[in-house]
Amino acid sequence: MPARLALQSAEALADALCAVADAVDRCEGPDGHCADPSRNPALGRAAATARRRGATDADILRAVDGERPALALRPFHETPPLIALADRTQIAAGAPEALRAAESALDGGLIAIFSPRDAEALAERAVGRALLDLSAVAALDGGTFDLLPDLTRLWTVALDLQAASAAISLGLEGLSAALIPAGGDLAARAEALAGLTAVVAAQTSVELAQLRGPCAEWDALKSQVADADRARRARLKSNPDPLAAVALKRIGKLGAPRRHATVGLFVDDAEARLRLGLGGPSVIDVFQTADGQIGRRLAAPLAAALARAGGDVQAAERRLFGRRTLVEAPGVDHAALRAFGFTDIELAAVEQALAGADGFDAVFTAPVLDPGFIRDVLGLEDGDGPLLNLLGVPEEAEFAAARWVFGHGDLTDWAEAPAAVAALLADPAGVEADLRRAVEPFSDAPDTAVDPLDGRATAAQAARRLAQAAAEGRRAVRLRRAPPPPGPLLGIRAGPTRAARGPAFPPPPGGAGP
């Protein structure tokens, strides 16, 4: 985190000094006046900002003379997280070590591991890695996954030929996209797929050991591998999914020498995911049309699950993205705007702008509204602040109208969601995390996917999350605070707002709306 903050501070200071130079360049008066903060208000404001960001007066004077900072900043590269072997009992009990670990873990810089074997598997960092897109496999064979054993065998051989490493990883990706459309017991299906992949990879590793020799660590690890195989066999026997029975039939003799000491089922490779077109689990799918336009829709797996459960996909998308019109909107509608002096011309401009806007601030402003209309009819100046707020619109009314127009952004607490898929629609990331936990028992290396915290989480809150994960029996925990949402987070205004001409705004009809 210190390196990231230092980079951001340096960039902010450089931007402020460039703004000083820009204020002089844009000035159209005499040179002496343009370079004088007392005669050039824009320069005075830019210089004050630069001083607040740490610039000395000498730096500011150089910028006034046209010198722009050229910072040769090295790109910020996130270093691999530290792997820390922790005592599960102490962490679960909230020992002081948990707080110290949490302080380092807040920004993803630490992975807490509770088993020496898992710590060794992570530290070894498999050279041979591949991502298996299960959604693509399901599309090829209609969701039967008949091709998965052959694909697993192919990649196990290919990775061994690529690099003679004792550790390989076959990352099972696209779990939600592959399993959600078919429905059923998703966790059981994910566990069966993981078991089938692990069994086929192990048997292929046995055959490779016969041809190319076992890994050097085999004698020291064979007892641990045998114990893991017994536990996995027991899990498959209790799994009702038909693929679990297929995996059981493929299990070979316990204790046979293998080419690989560890076969992981998780790969953390953002670039490979990008090449495969795999994004994080989300209720919204962003896509590009044939003519280059960017669109948004309900994610296809969720749409399929919703339709299968008898839900209305169009209603879900209205909940997500809004209606993009103020017609019949709660809180602020056309009648309310007409009371302030809006005519058909302004209302048409507003309606047109709502289609591509993210909020009212981008709509109720110039150039959507003519600056003359804002000044002469509304009695305001463009840029004084949020127009609806200056007109006296209550926050509750504006919030209700914004939900109607721009949507909620998620399907949490959606009253029309069928009970069978309500949890899935509300938290697709949580469902994906559950599926990964179902896969983990069949992976020799633990899952190190980030467990997100609130963006303002403290070390104490992170320590409680660590303790909870340790008590739940998690093999590895990697915490990270969520990135802040886009846009300003603080409603800071430069000064008092002016009262607008027009009638007092009535209370919002119908409450908060849908």
Q: Any overview of this molecule?
A:
The protein is α/β, with parallel strands linked by helices and 514 residues long. Among the domains are: 2-64; 125-272; 281-321, no CATH class; 334-406, no CATH class. It has 24 helices and nine strands. It has helices spanning 2-26, 31-34, 41-52, 57-64, 88-92, 96-105, 116-124, 134-141, 148-162, 175-179, 186-212, 218-237, 242-250, 270-276, 300-308, 313-321, 334-339, 344-354, 371-376, 387-390, 395-406, 422-426, 428-439, 459-471, and strands spanning 82-85, 107-113, 128-133, 167-173, 262-264, 284-288, 294-298, 450-453, 476-481. The strands form three sheets. It has a four-stranded mixed beta sheet, sandwiched between helices. The chain has a three-stranded parallel beta sheet with strand order 3-4-5, with helices on both faces. A two-stranded antiparallel ribbon has the order 6-7. It is globular, with a radius of gyration of 29 Å. Residues 490-514 have low confidence and may be disordered.
